[in-house]
Amino acid sequence: MAIDKGDPRTAATMPRILLVEDNEDDADLIQAMLAETNFSESQVVVVERLREALKLIHKEGPFDVVLLDLSLPDAIGLDTFQTLHAGVPDTPVVVLTGLDDERVANQAVREGAQDYLVKNTVDSRLLGRAIRYAVERKQAESERRHLEARMHNARYLESLAVLAGGVAHDFNNLLMGILGNVQLTLMDLPPDSNCRAHLQHAKDLIHRAAELTKQLLAYSGQRSFPLKAVDANEVVLSLKPSLQAEIPEGTSVEYELAESLPPIEADAHQLSQAILNVVVNAHEALDGKAGAITVRTGSLLADRAYLDRTRLGSDLPVGRYISVEVIDAGCGMDEETLEKALDPFFTTKFQGRGLGLAAVLGVMRGHRGAMRISSSVGKGTTVTMLLPCGGDATAASDEIDAAAGADSSVPQLVLLLDTEEAARKIGRRILDRAGFDVLPAVDLAEAAEAYGEQLASVSAVIIDLANVQGPVSDVLSEIRAKCPDTTICISGLPEASDVSIEELDEAARLLEKPWDSQDLADELRACCADRPK
Fold this sequence. Notes:
Structural class: alpha/beta
Strand content: 15-25%
Largest sheet: 5 strands, parallel
Number of strands: 19
Oligomer: single chain
Strand order of the largest sheet: 2-1-3-6-7
Number of domains: 4
CATH superfamily of the largest domain: Histidine kinase-like ATPase, C-terminal domain
């Protein structure tokens, strides 16, 4: 619907007007003029003193516009406006006075008055226009502050993404070196060694550290997920065994699942982890008391107003979304806590336990979805996760088990490109143990100089995109030119490049650091099996 700027009803929905006027006849006349304008249905509150006006505003909240007389029992002249404006700087003030003084009028406008009207010259038309401009000005300033807040949040997320990407890359390289050495030591130890349990525990901790890095990347928006058509209800139902293990007796989880939901494009594992995170958080909100947690799915048509009230929703298109709600009757949150609930590592517990709901927000960001939290003290909390409906309900499900067809009797040639010396050494030793011939190099230029025509026989190339200088698409094309019929395995952080994860799915396989020796070997065997004979 088009907006008519000349109609104040479209600029604001019947604004609240505060009239500060001690003369009863003047107050009645002003209200009579308001009745002749499009603001006839506005709520008008009349007070006689400046002190009463300030007290009322601070008690009941701001008004949309103030009509102010400059001659009051407790204030007179320009000081009246200055005192009010200092107390409520964000409220538009229209001076409506009997003082016909051009110098005072100019000074009031310079100091922030929306308009300066003299009583014996004003009529309903002038009064209505002044109020309309004041309301539109307040609305414009509110929109400007909202836009500035969004821009500030975007800059904050961008800075966090840069920090997270750099830290995660270096941290993953360190983890890969540690994990590789642990795995190699496990290979060398006899089966009955007392040290195996300690090393296995260290290996498990390394994987937990890698998961924390993935959470941080998810929150910052640098980690994408391979999305497939899934049923939200099936994801929720698959969580039942995990929830039974996580939620102790005394707390029940009830399911209200809508029928015939359209599919969503999602990573089922990441989505289930997000829902599990929210349900566990809801259980903690019960604070040890018996109660019920409800997991509800549904479908809704989200308009712009609804999306703007969610986190991440302002940049999403209007349309149909699948909702997953987790509802508890716990302690709830006050406004201050609610404002911080999605901040990384924020917790109301005695100590932080990871990214908390911020990780869930990251999962929604990776799925081009949104998130909303509704809560009040003593009345529980509802966390709503919104996910866009998938365009195509079908997804390819035929996958070739390439590893079964691999010829393990002939060593396969793997080109390992990584600027990190530790990564090259560990990768070479792991792949040597798995039966591969490895050609390590810093980059493709060094590989071409060192190995020459051998590159034509390479079955797989492992390259860390985080170390690539220049357009990644050019590098991938150059690799394919020097290593025809090869499979490119992307390591590190593909989101740091100019190539999206969807494009990489078409051209390459994704290997996330730190590598697990068995997973890496299995993936490369599959790559070698795919290579034309």
